[in-house]
Amino acid sequence: MKKQLFAALAAVALVSGCASTAPVEEEVVVSVTVEEQAGQDEAFVQNAKDRVFFGFDKSNLTPDAVAVLKTQAEWLKANPEKKVVVEGHTDDRGTRDYNLALGERRAVAVKNYLISRGVDADRIRVISYGKERPAVVGANEAAWSQNRRAVTVVKD
Amino acid sequence: MKKIFLCVLFLSVVASLSAKAELSIDITGAHSEPMATGLPVFSASDSKAKEFSEKITQVIASDLESSGLFRILDSLAYLQTFKGIEDAPVFVDWQAIKAEALIQGHIDYLNERQIRVSVRLWDVYAAQELYSATLEIDNKGWRRAAHMIADAVYKRITGEEGYFDTRIVYIAETGSPLNRIKRLAIMDQDGENHQFLTDGLNLVLTPRFSPNMQQITYLSFYKDTPRVYLFDIETGKQQVVGDFPGMTFAPRFSPDGHKLIMSMAENGNTDIYEMDLDTRVVKQLTRSAAIETSPSYSPDGKQIVFNSDRSGAQQLYVMDANGKNVKRISFGNGRYATPVWSPRGDYIAFTKMAGGKFYIGVMFPDGKGERLVAEGYLVEAPTWSPNGRILMYFRQEPPDRSGIPGATKIYAVDITGYNERRLITPVDASDPAWSPLLSNR
Fold first, then answer.
1. CA distance to partner chain B, nearest, from residue A123 (Å)
2. Higher pLDDT, B389 or A12
3. CATH: 3.50.50.60, 3.30.43.10, 3.40.50.300, 2.120.10.30. Which one for B167-440?
4. Which of B33, B326, B412, B416 has its CA 20 to 30 A from that of B246?
5. B263:A128 CB<8 A
6. Is any Cβ of chain A less than 8 angstroms from the Cβ of B377?
7. What percent of chain A is predicted at pLDDT more than 70?
């Protein structure tokens, strides 16, 4: 499927981008899944990055995250017929129950920011996967930092 | 699900009232040598009974050995062969091979449906009978009969209830680590009678038994809407619990089975709620901006232990069942999570995270006496044996350097920290929950 292929390419680009900032861990970060991206809107990923990252056990938005969410909000305002699901995720360095709650906190932080930038609350649904759907496999900070994320998935 | 009809007749239980030092194992204290036990294959009335006698003897032996408290002596060394349950032991023959305990048994084939199992437990050095019983059972229930005999021997020797006639519900894991397929599965405590309960189409997590074993509560992502569900073991029917505006998770039954406690996350805040299963009335028990989750009742149902990050990181707290009198109990280094009250009430088991590692530990309900019993890259989710002497949990090995994920398996360990062992499961396994003793419910 074309959409899935695109998502795979985007994901690989993301890994190499991250690895360059963390060269020590480079070889142990393994490729990203495309499964959670299935159905993701191509134009959205092209025009606005689809994910933001969090510190360990944190759900506050970093300046980098805010920059990404601003472009997401602009894209969503330009495409008012689209709805999104914000998926909250964690690394595996916590327990299952707590990570579900932490993932929800992260997804809600993104949702609230998008609302503050003028996106209608009715267009945003949140779901937490906790530590159940990592983006990468690895027992190191480079992998964990990519898994502590909230991904905005566009639904038609 | 198949129902095993089991008719049990305890005709006689002979307890020794002798005042002298008895054959016994103290399992509360330090590690002790396993008790050398003679367990010859049960004698049989005929060839049909013989089929059962070998299988039943084998299950009793493996139950007792798995406890780490018994060592079954090699049958090649046995000097005496029993022809029936009335054959008296030749104690010098058993003393000669240094057996301390002797288990003697016999199977009678009654008819196509039934067998009779007779068993006697002997103190070899005191030349004394410690216990005897006779069970008439549906022959399909031979495995449970073996577990019940092992439980009776365990109880007679240790003074504690056994735990062999129990089941485990857990999450069976397959597929990519990035998009894991998770299914509810159930098996006997020794891994036998394994059965998948759900098909893997929906992500499911954290199953727990109801006290009467008729239901399992768990979290399902059915229709991308994570909610607490009930699974009926007899019918296989699944049903969502309540109508909550946010994600509900981390469910557990109250000790009387009439209530569920769980967390609900909404608008970035997670609190603990109780639902009365008879009236469906929901009560909010915590009201803080922090994450409150993993609640577990004390065995008398009067208190709840849970974890909260209200202090800035996860710690354990105890409150009254109505949400009042919240008290922090964990103060050690690191983060504490998934507290579970022992069925005996004497300990709280937990997962601890410190220095990049995970631990399974126990502490007294006032937070004192912390002791760690297992550690690893990721060990999580302790669950108690019904006698409160053994913890089961899962261990996930780290991925290797090429990114191949490590195995995830269920382990058991005595609360003394000894006798750690892996449960054999057909695929990877996590989130175990131990049932009550089946024969006690």
1. 15
2. B389
3. 2.120.10.30
4. B326
5. no
6. yes
7. 75
